[in-house]
Design goal:
261 residues; alpha/beta; Aminopeptidase; seven-stranded mixed β-sheet; two-stranded antiparallel ribbon; 7 helices; 16% strand; globular
Length: 261
């Protein structure tokens, strides 16, 4: 166990990773940020609570401690943009999702600070993620990665319009086998409570792209869920809303578990 993350190891070949749920900011980093950053408004709020059912099913659960303002665990270490030609947040984000500066003037991180944070915060999470996938593959012959994320439905600086409720990313089918993508689409189509899209605005971030290797026995997908699916205003967890979406999330995970082809 590391102070950077917590992991609960399960008995199924499924790992649920929620890399943006952390809200802590070390004091030395917080001193460089504008006061607003202390609210960590761009966190993927309450996902550990929302996905607790997955651990009860027998899946592994990987949870970071620190906020994405410290380092974005779902960005490549070389900091290449996830979505070229659009506004992106970086490996060490310098803007809020609304576009305003995250750092005090002149306090932005330099190359040495980027290197320090990657070594201190980014690497341990990815080492744990890779090790758990390797364990699952060794024990079960294959591994499945469910990347859980959440976001506001409207963020004009990042994307136009209003997001569907559920945004599944499979890197245009590259991070899962074709049969799984089709079955997931069928599960989503077989319900009317939540709007959805596969490989729309969010096609999968670095983790899905890096670890989704279906030809090598590891399939991965990203679920980008709008906050209103499980939260009330002001970042409050809403049991009733969560109870509506959790059965569908469970069905999607079970669909991943039920077959590989």
């Amino acid at each position: 166990m590391s102070e950077v993350y917590r992991i609960a190891r399960g008995r199924l070949p499924l790992l649920v990773s929620i890399p943006h749920v952390g809200t802590e900011i070390p004091p030395d980093i917080g001193a460089a940020l504008v006061p607003r950053a202390a609210q960590t408004e761009d966190a993927d709020w309450h996902l550990e609570r929302l996905y607790a059912f997955a651990a009860e099913m027998g899946a592994s659960l990987l949870v970071p401690r620190y906020a994405r303002y410290v380092v974005d665990l779902n960005r490549p270490p070389e900091n290449t943009p996830m979505y070229p030609g659009q506004n992106n947040t970086e490996l060490l984000p310098t803007r809020f999702f609304t576009g305003e500066p995250l750092y005090r003037a002149g306090a932005e991180p330099d190359a040495a600070e980027v290197e320090r944070r990657v070594a201190r915060y980014w690497m341990p999470y990815h080492e744990a993620l890779a090790a758990e996938l390797a364990r699952l593959k060794s024990e079960h012959g294959h591994a499945l990665l469910f990347e859980g994320h959440s976001i506001q439905a409207e963020l004009p600086w990042l994307f136009a319009g209003h997001l569907p409720d559920l945004n599944v990313g499979t890197v245009n089918g590259g991070s899962v086998l074709p049969g799984l993508r089709e079955r997931l689409a069928a599960v989503l189509a077989d319900q009317t409570d939540f709007s959805h899209v596969i490989d729309g605005r969010f096609k999968g971030g670095y983790i899905t792209r890096r670890y989704g290797r279906p030809d090598e026995g590891v399939q991965a997908l990203q679920m980008e869920m709008c906050w209103h699916c499980y939260m009330a205003p002001w970042h409050e967890y809403d049991e009733k809303r969560a109870a509506r979406v959790q059965p569908l999330l469970r069905r999607l995970m079970q669909t991943m578990l039920d077959g590989r082809a």
